[in-house]
Each structure stands twice: as C-alpha cells, then as structure tokens.
Design brief:
39% of the residues lie in helices and 21% in strands. It is α+β, with helices and mostly antiparallel strands. The protein has a domain of 149 residues: Gcn5-related N-acetyltransferase (GNAT) (Aminopeptidase). It is globular. The chain binds coenzyme A (COA).
C-alpha cells in the first residue's frame, strides 16, 4: 500500500477531523469519548488548516488521511483570527453546558471554544509558531511523524519564523520522546504537562550531530 506525504488540500479536512477524533493525544489507551465527534477537530486541527493551509501537511494512504501536522506561524495573530472568523459561529452553535456525568468530554472542548485566552506567554515572542501533529496507529513508528515535522519546519523557515512551540500532556511519554528526538526543549512545566519549544533559526544539536563530515 502506497503512503504519501503531501501539502494539505481542502479535501483533506474531513480526514484530518477523523484522525483528530480517533487518535489519543494524552498518552491514554483510548481516545476520549464525544457525543459530537466534530469538537476535537474544531479546537485542535480545523482552524489551523483553514487559517493557514500552507502550514498543513498530511500523510495519506488507500484508507484516507492517516496523519497530519497543522500549525500557525504566529500564535497571537492566530488568536485574533480565531476571535474574528472561527469562534463566533461555534460559540452560537455550542452554548456552554455542564458535565453530563456520562464520561463524555464535549463540555470540556465547548468550554475551550468559549474561553478567553490567557495572557501572552514569553515563548510566543521567541517561538511564535504553534503546531499539532497526529498519526493514526497504522502509521505510527514508521518515520512519518519526523517527515511531517521536517516538511513543516522547512515551510516555517522559508517564512523566517524563528521558532515553534507546542503543548504535550505529561502522560504522553511517546510524544515526549519523539519531540526530544527532534530537538525540542522544555520552556515551561504546567500541572497538565509541558510546553516544548524548537529553535528554527539555528540548526538543532541533533541536526549538527547528523551532518556528515
Ligand atoms: C507522536 C507521533 C506524532 C510521533 O510520530 P511517529 O511517526 O510515530 O514517530 P517517528 O517514527 O517519526 O519517530 C521519530 C523519532 O521519534 C522517536 N520516537 C518515536 N516514537 C518513540 C517511542 N515510542 N519511544 C521512544 N522514541 C520514540 C524516535 O527517536 C524516532 O527517531 P528515529 O527517526 O531515529 O527512529 C505519533 O506517534 C502520534 O501521532 N502519536 C499519537 C498522537 C500524539 O501523541 N500526538 C502528539 C500530541 S502532543
């Protein structure tokens, strides 16, 4: 079965939402449950691909989109875009609601849709890009994550973006090992996990080590 990595095309959006829903990103054995399966994509993937399709890449095979990386080059400008173009419709469609107590997580993401963003963090200036990456089980551990990140970093470097950041849950040991292998370092420890950053201006220590003599 052939597998391709390519720039995002609008026809990929549904597949990106599917992967976002089905792949766990907190290190748990099972993905969270939702009554409305669109919600994870609305929060963690869709707006990035729509706002800046040039910073989205997918891995696809005969079973469809099986992985993606999506990003914004500038977190603060992206927040402004969300407020103007993304959240208003969703806030109207999904009013805040209480935890129904049935183990579903809709109310948590609906709260994110309504949340007022916190104050800018120091790494927004030094590492303004922000990204999300996910691969379906069938494509994990085969180098696609590294290739997706390489494609994204090349696009960010072309635009002169100095660095990127992301959040990773403390329990997601696999992702933490992946980011470490790619040269990310910790910028901040939170009660939920870590903010990691990657310099894009200078080659990372890993890239220097990998350079042939
Ligand atoms: C995390 C994720 C994106 C990594 O992508 P991947 O394709 O599985 O990783 P790769 O095969 O490209 O591995 C790249 C490097 O990461 C490291 N790595 C990957 N998985 C690892 C693991 N389980 N343990 C230790 N190191 C690991 C390896 O050093 C590997 O180096 P190599 O290229 O020299 O072999 C992918 O597993 C995934 O989507 N996981 C579920 C969703 C998720 O957690 N997303 C991140 C949320 S913050």
């Amino acid at each position: 079965m052939s597998t391709y990595l390519r720039p995002y095309h609008p026809a990929d959006l549904a597949g990106i939402y599917r992967v976002c829903l089905l792949v766990d990103a907190v290190g748990g054995a099972r993905p969270a449950r939702f009554h409305n399966g669109d919600l994870p994509g609305h929060v963690y993937a869709g707006p990035y691909a729509v706002a800046d399709p040039g910073l989205a890449f997918v891995v696809a095979d005969e079973r469809g989109v099986g992985g993606y990386v999506v990003a914004t080059a500038d977190t603060l400008r992206f927040r402004q875009w969300l407020d103007e173009h993304w959240w208003p419709v969703l806030r109207e469609q999904y009013p805040r609601r209480a935890d129904p107590g049935d183990g579903t997580r809709d109310h948590v993401l609906i709260e994110d849709i309504h949340a007022t963003p916190g104050a800018p963090r120091p790494w927004f200036a030094t590492h303004p890009a922000q990204l999300h990456i996910k691969l379906a089980d069938r494509l994990q551990g085969r180098g696609w994550g590294r290739r997706l990140m390489e494609a994204l970093c090349a696009a960010l470097r072309e635009r002169g973006v100095p660095g990127a950041h992301l959040g990773v849950a403390a329990g997601n040991r696999r992702a933490i090992a992946f980011y470490d292998a790619l040269g990310f370092t910790q910028a901040h420890e939170h009660d939920w996990g870590h903010t990691l950053v990657l310099d894009l201006v200078r080659p990372t220590a890993k890239e220097v080590t990998d350079t042939p003599d």
